[in-house]
């Protein structure tokens, strides 16, 4: 929905400009998208530790987002990955709880290449525990991104994205 209808390859949109954050969320109103801040600052001093979510309602409630927000269209990729890391298997969850690094090989990224900064939500939900290294591999990764590493957040990012 927010992707431009030009025929550019994925990963070339300038969606996260250095200007106002609302511009980076492509027209969503203030309060309809998550801030790039640690969760405890948003949620009145929430206790430290990994934040576990069971569904979109938990996420919207945690960040006090209105149910009308369309942010799920962008965050479905990072929050699905977060769910896999924290709920599907105990091994990555235990590594993260011990402050260790978990490496994820993310095969076939397309649309999510335009929203790399959205993966900052994983950083905020980890709440200072562990590190996630995401390696995005696939034919849609533009050659000029290949071999680069992106940080996802402006605030102490523990999530790094590499492109192959």
Written description of the protein model:
With about 160 residues, the chain is of the alpha/beta class. It is built from 6 helices and 4 strands, in the order αααααβαβββ. The protein has helices spanning about 20-25, 40, 55-60, 70-90, 90-95, 120-125; strands at about 100-105, 130-135, 150, 160-164. It has a 4-stranded mixed β-sheet with strand order 1-2-4-3. Helix 4 (about 70-90) crosses helix 5 (about 90-95) and helix 4 (about 70-90) crosses helix 6 (about 120-125). The longest helix is centred in the middle third of the chain and has 17 residues, at about 70-90. The chain is globular and about 40 Å long. The model is unreliable at about 1-5 and about 15-25 (pLDDT under 50).
Short précis:
With 164 residues, the protein is an alpha/beta fold.
List keywords for this structure.
4 strands, single chain, 13% strand, 164 residues, alpha/beta, four-stranded mixed sheet, globular
């Amino acid at each position: 929905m927010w992707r431009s209808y030009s025929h550019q390859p994925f990963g070339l949109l300038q969606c996260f400009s250095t200007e106002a954050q609302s511009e980076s969320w492509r027209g969503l109103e203030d309060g309809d998208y998550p801030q790039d801040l640690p969760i405890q600052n948003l949620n009145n001093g929430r206790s430290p530790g990994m934040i576990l979510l069971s569904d979109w309602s938990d996420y919207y409630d945690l960040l006090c987002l209105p149910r009308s927000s369309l942010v799920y269209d962008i965050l479905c990729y990072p929050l699905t990955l977060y769910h896999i890391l924290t709920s599907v298997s105990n091994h990555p969850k235990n590594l993260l709880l011990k402050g260790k690094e978990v490496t994820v090989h993310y095969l076939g990224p397309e649309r999510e290449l335009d929203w790399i900064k959205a993966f900052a939500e994983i950083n905020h939900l980890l709440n200072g525990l562990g590190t996630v290294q995401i390696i995005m591999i696939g034919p849609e990764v533009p050659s000029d991104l290949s071999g680069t590493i992106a940080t996802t957040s402006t605030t102490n990012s523990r999530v790094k994205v590499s492109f192959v």
